[in-house]
# Entry
Amino acid sequence: MNLCLPHCQVCARSHWPSREICPHCLGHEIQWTEIESSGSVVTATLLHHSLEPRFREHLPVCVATIQLDCGVCVLVYLEPGDLAIGNRVIVSTGTGPTGQEALVAKSVTR
Amino acid sequence: MTPRGYRHVAAAVPVTIPYVRRSEHGVYWWLGRALGELVRRSGISKQEIDGLIAASYTLRPDSVVSLTEYFGLTVRWLEDLPMGGASGPVALCRAARAVEAGDAEIVACIAGDVLGGAAFGKLMDNYSSFSRDAVLPYGIVGPNLPFALITRHYMERTGAVREDMGRICIAQRHNGHYFPHALLKNPLTMKEYLAARPIAEPLHLFDCVMPCSGAEGFLVMSEDRAQAGGLPYASILAGVERYNAFPEDKVQVSGGWPMDRDRLYAAAGLGPGDMHFLQAYDDYPVIVMFQLEGLGFCETGEAPEFVRAVDLTADGVGLPLNTGGGQLSLGQAGAVGGFVGITEGLRQVSGQALGLQVMNATVGLVSGYGTVNFDRGLCSSAVILARGSA
# Structure
């Protein structure tokens, strides 16, 4: 599955998290648009604790900040082996450990 | 333009209501305890209070407006503070400007929050729309997630190691050992710090504040009124606020202080070397490092070296940091954490420390930081306090 992000029809820039108003130009026509889904790991953490009991059986899990090549940064789930900073990844919409919709990243070398 | 200071304004009567982990009482009880102590200890009647400014997360959906009716206060100046950890310096600046301008004569500044039942979980679920949509699905972690990401990035960038974070936590716990209201009082060793269980790597247990219940407060009034009441007080030499600084940074590498510190120090006519203490916002040690750098105590990226070289204890010879132990020792009672530095700073400059008193402390800096809307704290604030000359 490819990656769609909110995209401003006025200034042609994407942003995240989703907004109804563009944070760059205050344009109010935003459409979810498919974008190039490659990016790099900016920072990452291995989580050992959750506030949600049903999450705990899945721990530890790795969550990372990815800067997409369009410049936008997103939080994603990542395989713990891929958390090196600078690692190249592909981001897509998928599911997290408990089945909820989430962005996931996979190393391009996998 | 250099901002104006706050002429002939006094901040007085710092109050800390002893914290507890989980509270059987509601948030109004805590806010009311702070307000009641302000009245009792100042000798100023409730009827004389004509301004109120408050910070609380767990007061929602009620607001500071609700507080007036609940406490039977009739005021002509009222402000609500959603700035979380930045709220203390912001409350002080706003109240001081109102008193200076004559919009209010006596402003009660209070913060209160409770941990009890599902309060913390509910707060995390509804903290902000961005957080709910783009952060919560990633582990349902709360603030440990963004701060783990910020800390890892900072450590990679600067070469900071866990021991550097530990030095901040250990020095603050030393200070907290002497502070009567700290929930965490046992001295912390580097061995214990390093051996703590991982929470969100690189964060381990002692990097994280303990959620709890509590309240803090102080009064702002004219110097004349403070003197007439025989109240020890502090003058406010300068104050700054900043929101959403450096949005282009892909991960947060500083608060807003680098944008504002020159104006802050220029207004006070002082520099970082003149500060007798720093009360820094300490939800996580990396944020203390941001303040050491952003407020000019060291260069950008050099806070790890700074904490290796400089004694941070309140009874040491370096830079006394979070002299009451900070939130890392007291616990974090929601937005009340934003007031901790102000009440402790007021006690220090007016010689009323409850724990360790910094020798000859007459001027010091208090900074605040907070409100992680998505992946970083959006609010930063700072004030310079000086002993009032009665």
Remarks:
- Residues 1-35 of chain A form one domain.
- The mean pLDDT of chain A is 94.
- Chain A touches chain B through 32 residues (CB under 8 Å).
